[in-house]
Amino acid sequence: EVQLVESGGDLVKPGGSLRLSCAASDFIFSNVWMNWVRQAPGKGLEWVGRIKSRTDGGTTDYAAPVKGRFTISRDDSKNTLYLQMNSLKTEDTALYYCATAGAGCCDDAFDFWGQGTMVTVSS
Amino acid sequence: DIQMTQSPSSLSASIGDRITITCRASQSISSYLNWYQQKPGKAPKLLIYAASSLQSGVPSRFSGSGSGTDFTLTISSLQPEDFATYYCQRSYSTPLTFGGGTKVEIK
Questions:
Q1: In this structure, are residues A97 and A116 in contact, taking their beta carbons and an 8 Å threshold?
Q2: What pLDDT does residue B22 have?
Q3: Which B residues, 4 through 33, put their C-beta within 8 Å of a C-beta on chain A?
Q4: Which of A34, B42, B62, B75 has the smallest number of Cβ neighbours within 10 A?
C-alpha cells in the first residue's frame, strides 16, 4: 500500500527556516511527480509546488506566495521528498501535505496523500 | 493565473438528496479538472479526475461533468459518509489551483 509520511513540522519564528520531509514507500518513487499542498487552520487547500520525475527533467514549479522562498527537492535513492522553507512568514502557518501525482492512475491528479505535518510561524 | 471558483461555499442537505456542486474556471481548462473530498482531520481523497473519470473505489453515486470553464460534481443520493468538504482543482498547467471548497452539512 502506498505510504507517504511527512515530518519536520515545528514552531519557528518569522524569518526562520525549516525543512520538511516526505518519506515514500510501496511505489516507484523515482517515476512519480510529487507535490506539496498546505492548509491553513480552518481554511481551504493551497497548492505549494511540485517536482517532476528525473526522467521528465526533475524541474520544479511553485505557487506565487512561496516562489523564491521555498525549494522542493527529491532524493530518489532515499525515496524522499523535501520542502526547504526560508524567510518564513506568519501566513505560512499551515498543515503541509505531500501528495503523489498519478502514482497509480489518474493522469496528474493527486491520488495519494500523506497525513500532513504542522508548521507554525509565530514570534 | 486561472482562478477556480466553487459554489455554493456550503450547503445543507438530507440523506438521499441529490446535490450538485459547481466549479468555474476563469479561463478554459479543457477537461483538466479534479475533485477531492476532505473530512475533518483527514487528508483529502481523490474522487474524480479529468472532469468525469471516477477514481477506483469511489462509489458510483459520485459523478463529474463539464469542460472548458464550467464543471459540476454530483452526488446522486447523499449518504451519511458523504458529509465533508469538497474541492475542485485545476490540473496539468501550473499553478494547480484549488477552488475554495464546498462544505456539505446535514440538514
A1: yes
A2: 98
A3: none
A4: B42
Mutate to test the interface with B, among A6, A37, A106 (most CBs of B within 10 A): A106
- All three cell numbers of B96, joined, read 494547480
The answer, yes or no, to whether residue A103 has pLDDT greater than 90, is no
Length of chain B: 107
Q: How far does the CA of residue B5 sit from the closest CA of chain A (Å)?
A: 12
Residue pair A99/A9 in contact (Cβ under 8 Å)? The answer is: no
Q: Which residue reads 507554525 in cell numbers?
A: A120
Looking up cell 477514481, which residue turns up?
A: B55
CB atoms within 10 A of CB A29: 24
Look up residue B78 and give its DSSP letter.
-
- Distance set, CA B60 to CA A99, B52, B105 (Å): 24, 12, 20
Report the C-alpha gap between B102 and A39 in whole angstroms: 15
pLDDT (average), residues A11-33:
97
Beta strands A45-51 and B19-25 are unpaired
